[in-house]
């Protein structure tokens, strides 16, 4: 023991000297970059430092590192926009999530984290092995397309175990929701500023050619010729922002119900987030965002009332959560209309003119059914519809693989999601998709139903609803939402949290039974 301490003391001056020299070198390089106005090198250095800090934090404490990874996940596109769509930046999150998997695995082996066996794992593995076989499909131009497809479709699935292990108590659940709503509010606020003041806010003047069109989209109200920008917020595309707003709406409503039932602090953060998201949804210019946000509000209100604890007189709390959510959303919209009437008016005109059945420019039935059905049927006109063209050949990001190979990506894409599965996987693709997604939703429903009349029910219902939207209605419109890394990552994290909620509720109920006086303090009501 004495020898090791002596050795450490002897090495301390060397460590101090190394730190000093490293600091002097860094200061020298920093001074050179500033004097030469080489700001790109500064940004690269800052990004590299941030990634190293997150990686070290994950290695030391994966739970704390996970939240830093979550911040990186949402704001990575912002960095990528300013660095010319550098693909090294794009893959940084994959390195970080890989480190999270390793750290969690070691924690499970050492007994510091819990895991579980998802009930849909077997049928999902069938879909996974079909995808693996499709990497070597003879009709695929390159195995690189297969690697891309496997990464997009399956790499974030282990986040289900991260979400399960992350939430050990109600305090962890509360912290997760608070962090998520703060991030949601920040991302939504950036979109609002871009929609009202122009795309220059947190957007470089010149975007990389691959993302230039995605980040500068405009629409026009067909009857009044009102042009407006589709804000992309911190993301590289307006579509990713629209999908994110659907997630944000559902997450906010679930958190509102849970916080009201539990009488937890932080409700102002939740309801302020709902108000900001409501304004961002209106200004997004996305019919997908506004329709699914409204449908989610109605569906979750019905689910909350169905699962309310009527027997113990606590149902008024969920009614209060629904009412407050609606009030804050209306307040956000009212403030938007008051301060930015022209921005709100142009978007509202577009929505009304294209979604109202009384309008001559009505498009809802065509976009929701006729057009996707036509795309689905067109998948059978492909010559290889029975066996597919290989996973990844019709996925997001094929342009990057084509650029790497110096060739045009395969022109086999269809816009409808289940048709895309046929194009890539063959006829077995949609069959196995319905099998594993149906098993997942059935397993999730078996978790949600017993949680009725408990205070975690709103959050459980919101997660189930989000999974249903992702895997069926939004997949019908296209697989972009499922393959988008943010929507996909949150899907698996939330599913993992859902399967942990019964344990959290059981532990809370047991604690309250041992300490009955806490019923008044926390608004306790027994589980069904």
Could you give the distance between the termini?
57 Å
Strand order in the sheet with the most strands: 1-2
Sheet bearing the most strands, described? 2 strands, antiparallel
Strand content: under 5%
Which spans have pLDDT < 50 for at least 5 consecutive residues? 1-11, 517-528
Layout: helices, strands, pairs:
Blueprint: H1 2-35, H2 39-60, H3 62-82, H4 87-90, H5 92-109, H6 121-134, H7 143-154, H8 159-166, H9 170-197, H10 209-212, E1 218-220, E2 227-229, H11 238-262, H12 267-283, H13 287-306, H14 315-339, H15 341-355, H16 364-378, H17 398-405, H18 417-425, H19 428-448, H20 457-471, H21 473-477, H22 480-483, H23 485-514, H24 518-522
Antiparallel strand pairs: 1-2
Write up this protein.
Helix 6 (121-134) runs antiparallel to helix 7 (143-154) and helix 13 (287-306) packs antiparallel against helix 20 (457-471). A hairpin with a 6-residue loop joins strand 1 (218-220) and strand 2 (227-229). With 528 residues, the chain is mainly alpha-helical. It has a two-stranded antiparallel ribbon. It is 72% helix and 1% strand.
Question: What's the gist of this structure?
Answer:
This protein has 528 residues and is mainly alpha-helical. It has 24 helices and 2 strands. It has helices at 2-35, 39-60, 62-82, 87-90, 92-109, 121-134, 143-154, 159-166, 170-197, 209-212, 238-262, 267-283, 287-306, 315-339, 341-355, 364-378, 398-405, 417-425, 428-448, 457-471, 473-477, 480-483, 485-514, 518-522; strands at 218-220, 227-229.
């Amino acid at each position: 023991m004495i020898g090791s301490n002596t050795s450490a003391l002897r090495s301390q001056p060397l460590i101090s000297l190394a730190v000093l020299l490293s600091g002097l070198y860094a200061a020298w390089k920093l001074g050179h970059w500033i004097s030469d106005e080489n700001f790109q090198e500064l940004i690269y250095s800052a990004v590299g430092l941030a990634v190293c800090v997150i990686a070290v934090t994950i290695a030391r404490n994966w739970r704390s590192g996970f939240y830093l990874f979550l911040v990186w996940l949402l704001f990575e596109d912002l960095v990528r926009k300013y660095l010319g769509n550098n693909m090294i930046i794009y893959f940084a999150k994959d390195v970080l999530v890989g480190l999270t998997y390793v750290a969690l695995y070691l924690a499970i082996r050492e007994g510091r984290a819990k895991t579980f066996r998802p009930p849909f794992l077997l049928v999902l593995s069938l879909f996974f092995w079909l995808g693996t076989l499709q990497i070597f499909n003879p009709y695929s131009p390159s195995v690189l397309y297969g690697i891309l497809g496997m990464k997009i479709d399956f790499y974030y699935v282990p986040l289900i175990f991260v979400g399960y292990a992350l939430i050990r108590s109600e305090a962890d659940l509360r912290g997760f929701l608070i962090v998520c709503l703060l991030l949601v509010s920040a991302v939504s606020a950036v979109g609002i500023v871009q929609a009202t003041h122009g795309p220059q806010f947190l957007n470089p003047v010149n975007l990389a050619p691959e993302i230039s069109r995605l980040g500068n989209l405009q629409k026009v109200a067909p009857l009044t010729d009102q042009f407006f920008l589709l804000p992309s917020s911190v993301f590289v595309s307006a579509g990713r922002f629209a999908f994110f707003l659907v997630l944000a709406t559902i997450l906010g409503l679930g958190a509102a119900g849970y916080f009201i039932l539990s009488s937890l602090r932080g409700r102002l953060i939740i309801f302020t987030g709902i108000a900001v998201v409501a304004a961002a949804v209106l200004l997004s210019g996305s019919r997908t965002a506004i329709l699914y946000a409204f449908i989610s509000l109605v569906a979750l209100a019905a689910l909350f009332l169905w699962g309310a604890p009527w027997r113990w007189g606590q149902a008024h709390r969920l009614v209060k959560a629904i009412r407050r959510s609606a009030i804050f959303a209306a307040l956000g919209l009212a403030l938007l209309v008051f301060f930015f009437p022209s921005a709100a008016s142009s978007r509202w005109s577009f929505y009304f003119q294209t979604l109202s059945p009384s309008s001559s420019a009505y498009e809802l039935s065509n976009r929701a059914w006729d057009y996707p059905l036509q795309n689905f049927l067109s998948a059978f006109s492909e010559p290889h519809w029975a066996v597919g063209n290989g996973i990844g050949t019709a996925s997001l990001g094929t342009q990057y693989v084509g650029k790497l190979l110096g060739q045009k990506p395969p022109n086999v894409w269809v816009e409808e999601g289940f048709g895309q599965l046929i194009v890539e996987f063959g006829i077995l693709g949609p069959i196995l998709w319905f099998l594993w997604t149906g098993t997942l939703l059935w397993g999730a429903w078996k978790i949600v139903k017993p949680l009725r009349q408990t205070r975690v029910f709103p959050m459980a219902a919101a997660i189930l609803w989000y999974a249903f939207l992702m895997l069926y209605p939004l997949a019908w419109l296209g697989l972009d939402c499922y393959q988008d890394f943010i929507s996909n990552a949150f899907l698996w994290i939330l599913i993992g949290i859902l399967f942990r909620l019964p344990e959290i509720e059981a532990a809370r109920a047991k604690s309250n039974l041992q300490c009955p006086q806490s019923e008044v303090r926390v608004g306790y009501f027994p589980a069904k």
